Records
---
Amino acid sequence: MFCQDPRHLIIWSSFLVLVLIGSSSAAAQTAESDSSKGIPIDNATVKQACSSCHVADEKGRLSRISFRRTTPEGWQQTIRRMVTLNGVDLDPETAREVVRYLSNTLGLAPEEAYPAAYEVERRADDQPYKDAGIQETCTQCHSMGRVLNQRRTSKEWALLMAMHRGYYPFTDFQAFRRSGPATDEPQPVDQAIKHLSEHFPFQTSEWAAWSATMRPARVAGTWLIRGQALGLGPVYGSFTITPVPDTEDEFTTATTYTYARNGRRVTRTGQAIIYTGFQWRGRSSEDNGNTHREVMFVDRDLRTMRGRWFTGSYDEEGIDITLERADSQPVIAGVHPLALSTGTTETLRLYGLNLTGESPSNSIDLGPGIEIMEVLGNNDESFDIRVHVDAEASHGYRDLFFDRSNISNAIAVYDEVDRITVMPSTGMARVGGIRFPKQYQQFEARAYNDGPDGESNTADDLDLGIIDANWSIEEYAVTIGDDDTQYVGSIDGSGLFTPSLDGPNVERSGERNNIGDVWVTATYPAQTMSRSQLRARGHLVVTVPLYLRWDPTAVEQP
Ligand code: HEC
Ligand code: HEC
């Protein structure tokens, strides 16, 4: 692109000027109606940083910038391109201020941000989009989530396409234009502009409503953590938020939580910003330096936050988080284990907050057939109880009540494990460790009881929670003499798959990379006479590192 021939430079720079000032033939027709929209920019830092190229009109709207809305990550990504490709010089502090102002002024409403929350939560799976044609055109190089998190005037949608074609001319061959004989049908790129302008317009009732009521979110205080980590199971704990003095949207945090299955306790401290009145972006660290990014959405009533905390070179390790405001009342978060078999006596641990001072034996109720025999001592965050399950207790979930707090379907009462499952059904890992980092894949095995109808995979099946399965790797035979199991990597007792090194392997025939695909198999001892063990498996693809990444960088640090 950046070649020496001066003629090319002239063509190139005139393209940039056209895209910058917002002129393109495809866009011209809609330009007039679009120019009545747009949100003025009333911030000295943004004007200073951007208006040398993005000229202000008489209403204080900056070209391009005032005509599209997106997430903090979306703004971050654009600003990053201004720096990397358009020669803008910005210090980090100014960039953060610009992201903050633009996310608040030209952001998304909660209803607009939720459908593609997975994009900013860095979940591995892009969700299928309702229009398969648009999805095909726009997901050749990046996720659909990136597109769904944008709201633009139709002129801005057209200019975005022009940016793609100008900077990345292969876009035409790869996706934007059809090859083969000419037809009357519009090109994919024109269909995309039309579709996106209709479904993701700049002006929406959601944004009008949210921007009218939006205000700094008052989240200071203590919150109850309920989390789920794939393969590791539930986490419970507390999250305390303290405002940074003289700010409205910056916070520091103190977190403690416990993995209920193995009792591992974690403490973290962190900091965060809330963008657009509801988008929490934070970062927290353990003493050992292990860092999480926190992406959460604050509910409108300021009583719940939901999202994902994650880490790993590919953001593949994470906890799904729900936070609930915990005032001084005792509140229960969850219980371990999640299932009790009939006719047994067991110890249960209940997790929550503000538990001292209560007399648990009086205020706890686990429902019919479960007798509470003894309370074995409590602290503020947990207590243990001995329970006996009647041999005749009916199978099914029990709601748990404690003081004024309750959990629906907290515990399953069952007789035996009828089947197990492996999650995910298809996983992906990337070799690494030399030139690129490894991408790990955690698997999870869960046990189920067939429920009252005695049939597997029906609505009344009981989820008995995660089990400690025996894990192994088996060949997924696709070629003659397939030898992937020897090279792709290994799985440990907790279901965590670690891929092998990247690069050619001289020990493998043809010096192939350590990539391939295999079955990941879980087995578990059966409790019936008819079968000796229960089995389930998932497919695992072990592939090459991501050599090229067009990912937005983190935006959360104040
Ligand atoms: C040196 C000139 C220059 C400066 C300064 C500049 N930009 Fe740009 N901007 C461009 C050019 C050229 C384009 C069109 C090509 C492109 O999209 O990269 C553009 C396009 C854009 C777009 C449209 C991108 C899209 O997704 O369609 C946005 C939004 C934007 N700039 C935001 C900003 C912000 C915010 C700032 C201030 C921090 C800024 N720009 C500063 C040159 C500049
Ligand atoms: C050939 C690969 C390719 C295809 C196909 C493609 N994109 Fe992109 N897109 C990119 C790249 C690369 C970037 C990052 C540009 C940058 O910031 O350097 C990008 C960035 C974006 C952005 C963020 C722009 C910003 O900075 O604000 C949006 C939105 C987007 N694409 C939408 C789309 C849509 C809509 C389609 C389908 C009509 C599409 N893309 C198809 C490669 C592609």
---
Amino acid sequence: MKNRFTLFAAAALCAGAALAGLLPGTAADARAQGQPQGPDMAEMRRGMELMQKQMAVMTPDMVERANALSPEIKKFLVGVVLKHPRQSDTLTLRQVMEEILADYHAVATALATDNGELAADAARRIANHRLPRGGLLPYLPLDKVTTQGLSVLPSMEKAVEGSAHLLAAAAEKGDMVAAAQHFGTMTSGCVACHAHFRGQPGTSARVRAR
Ligand code: HEC
């Protein structure tokens, strides 16, 4: 099992190195656009440790799935743990989602009542949401935990977290019209991710399907 964690670490480190070598402009571009820079090697190593902490609580079949992912998706997942320092030892993804929903309601209330400060705070809490015990992967349908199945994650992250940050900045400036538009884009991210990974919540095996 130890070897497997190391494999994940090695693959993601290689991806980091490859990207750093192949795309030297990426960090500068990100800086120019005012976005957070890609993680450097020391950061990458720290991310890997966090990733291994998640993998330590996964079942062996889950670990195997995670290790089979492409270096690009692994690197993306390492970036996710680095960007989300609030990592719970007990909460499930559903509990984290309900927390996100509470903040989502707060944003909607704030937008409707011209309260830019509350909108900005709650939107940033959404962008900086907690990670559940074991990370995101164990809570997704097993057949979606593939390089292909997870390839949609970066665009969903951009729609939800990217828009949440833009929403916060607009709300803080008092531009509630722009903030409301970002709220729409953010919502489309929730919708797309649920359509891809979740299906109808709370169905029962004892009720005939429609
Ligand atoms: C990375 C994909 C992803 C994104 C983005 C996402 N969700 Fe979820 N969400 C899920 C998954 C998967 C579940 C099912 C979790 C489970 O049941 O274990 C879920 C469940 C939920 C639930 C629990 C009840 C239910 O319907 O299953 C709520 C509430 C929720 N999400 C709200 C939101 C909101 C609000 C947003 C946008 C701000 C959002 N989610 C964005 C993947 C996502």
